[in-house]
Specification:
Belongs to the ubiquitin-conjugating enzyme family. Keywords: ATP-binding, Nucleotide-binding, Transferase, Ubl conjugation pathway. GO terms for molecular function: ATP binding; ubiquitin conjugating enzyme activity. This is E2 ubiquitin-conjugating enzyme. It is globular, with a radius of gyration of 27 Å. It is of the alpha+beta class and 184 residues long. The termini are far apart. The protein has 4 helices and 8 strands.
């Protein structure tokens, strides 16, 4: 029984109790739960990357959006890419790590596995993706791809032909060709 405006009311109407007022709290949707787990995963990967001490790779969220990162890799020693710093963009989907991030070169890169738009042809970013991979693994794989000696494994045949011809020249001339392409 409750008293409202001096009158006594029976909260029970018949045998069924009246619904008690409840505070409005939205139930978490599956998408917001997934987003939270992705946020935690990306924060964890950022910390692991910062603590790893790997030379020649780095990445950080862009401004306040943890789903968009800017990364850098430095060309490996004893390659035509040595000493060149490349800027990358990494865009993580809402279902990361079950789907790979989209990774692109922002700095022009003359390589058989990189097209003129910066798209990277790398199996772990496509059909060989595994949720066990992380940002560190991706950056190290791209760095390794640049330093790889196998130019027969390629996605962009035009660059492969040029590189095969260029390999006949000295490393210095190849390095100049790469650096000249970067500044186009």
């Amino acid at each position: 029984m409750a008293t409202v405006n001096g009158h006594t009311e029976d909260r029970y109407q018949g045998n069924t109790p009246a619904a008690a007022p409840t505070p409005k709290q939205p139930f978490p949707t599956a998408k917001s739960v997934d987003t939270q787990s992705v946020l935690k995963r990306l924060q964890s990967e950022l910390m692991a990357l910062m603590m790893s001490g790997d030379s020649g790779i780095s990445a950080f969220p862009e401004e306040e959006n943890i789903f968009c990162w800017k990364g850098t890799i430095t060309g490996s020693k004893d390659t035509v890419f040595e000493g060149t710093e490349y800027k990358l963009s990494l865009s993580f989907p809402n279902d990361y790590p079950f789907k790979p991030p989209k990774v692109k070169f922002e700095t022009a890169c003359f390589h058989p596995n990189v097209d003129v738009y910066g798209n990277i042809c790398l199996d772990i970013l496509q059909d060989k993706w595994s949720s066990a991979y992380d940002v560190r693994t991706i950056l190290l794989s791209i760095q390794s791809l640049l330093g790889g000696k196998r130019i027969s494994s390629h996605c962009y045949a035009e660059v492969t032909v040029i590189l095969k011809c260029t390999l006949k020249f000295s490393r210095n001339k190849t390095n100049r060709l790469t650096r000249a392409y970067i500044f186009l």
